[in-house]
Amino acid sequence: MQFARDLDTASADKFVGMYVNERTLDYGADGREAVRRLLDMGHKAGIIGPEARVDWV
Question: Minimal CA–CA distance to 42: which of 28, 24, 55, 54?
Fold first, then answer.
């Protein structure tokens, strides 16, 4: 609840159930490739300025 931004417990529980999963901890190789592709598509479409480079930590 420390990071719940004023959500009540029931709403915070619903949010966590909807958006927190194993990919929260690690996108995996396919997730990292998806992010790279998304950024590349955005750059090619002119939505993102200079080519984005992602450093995974």
Answer: 54
Total domain count, the chain: 1
Q: Where in the sequence is the domain holding 29, given as residue range(s)?
A: 1-57
Q: What is the pLDDT of residues 1-56, one digit of tens each?
A: 888 888 999 999 999 999 999 888 898 999 999 999 999 999 999 999 888 888 88
Three-state secondary structure readout of the chain: CCCCCCCCHHHHHHHHHHHCCHHHHCCHHHHHHHHHHHHHHHHHCCCCCCCCCCCCC
Distance between CA 48 and CA 33 in Å, rounded? 17
